[in-house]
Amino acid sequence: MSDPVRLTVVGSGNASNAAGRGHSCYWLEGVLPDAGLMVDFGGTALAGIKSLGLDPQRLGVLAFTHLHGDHIGGYPFLVIDALYDRGRTTPLQVVGPVGVEERLESLLRVCYGSLAEKERPFRLSYHELSPGNAFALPGGGSIQASAADHQDPPEVPLCLRITAANGSAIAFSGDTRFCDGLFEAARGTRLLVAECSALEPPCGRHCSWLEWREQAASLDCPRILLTHLGEEVRARIPELLGEGLAGLEVEFADDGRTLEVR
């Protein structure tokens, strides 16, 4: 039997760090050979990975679902850490929606001015993903993108399906309301990491628990980890676990939690 993919929840909160949780982001082991892959990197992400004993030097690929601050805000600190604290020399690949390079480099300049132009002793490469396209990962895995429904054009938010070389696949909703792209990303995976920002609508272009109760039967995936939790959702987790979702193994994310996916 092949080794499992191991997922560590670095942050499970929303943009306002509800209930004191870090911004929603995740570290994956077993997708890349001898390196970690991370999905999203909000303002609390660097502190989160260090507090969990994870080494940012081992991060080989950083994948972004969309370009809101609670999903990209920690990027300048990762680069500064690599330049000055870690002396990084190994390459880092950044994968994200259309405009990812321009947005992240602009964020670096806003945060650190001329330091953003400093020559980097490691290769930093950006790769744009559009819905329907895939990025080939070192070692034989892939990141497949589908369209999320969270922002207006020209923004192109994504749901991501990350597949390891052994075929284990995990989907990430990013931030989105229910849409075809969410179901497409999750189809046939072993785990969907999906947002549940509120108990019920209206909650903007986000998913709620009530909507998950209505939509769960349509999901072609046996297991769901609900995250990006608002305070009301987190406060009622025991009750919601009792309600369950039809046909799904339901779990709720918390900072530092780990799961294995085979």
Short synopsis of the structure:
The protein is α/β, with parallel strands linked by helices and 262 residues long.
SSE order and pairing:
Blueprint: E1 5-11, E2 25-32, E3 35-39, H1 45-51, E4 59-63, H2 69-72, H3 75-85, E5 92-97, H4 100-112, E6 124-129, E7 134-136, E8 142-147, E9 158-163, E10 169-172, H5 180-186, E11 191-195, H6 209-215, E12 223-227, H7 231-235, H8 237-243, E13 249-252, E14 258-261
Parallel strand pairs: 3-4, 4-5, 5-6, 10-11, 11-12, 12-13
Antiparallel strand pairs: 1-2, 1-14, 2-3, 7-8, 8-9, 9-10
Instruction: Tally the helices.
Output: 8
Main CATH class:
Alpha Beta
Which consecutive residue ranges, at least 5 long each, have pLDDT under 50? none
* Total tally of structural domains: 1
Task: Describe it.
The chain is α/β, with parallel strands linked by helices. It has a single domain, classed as Ribonuclease Z/Hydroxyacylglutathione hydrolase-like (Metallo-beta-lactamase, Chain A, 4-Layer Sandwich). It contains 8 helices and 14 strands. The strands form 2 sheets. Strands 6-5-4-3-2-1-14 form a 7-stranded mixed β-sheet. Strands 7-8-9-10-11-12-13 form a 7-stranded mixed β-sheet. Helix 1 links the parallel strand 3 (35-39) and strand 4 (59-63). It is globular, with a radius of gyration of 17 Å. The termini are close together.
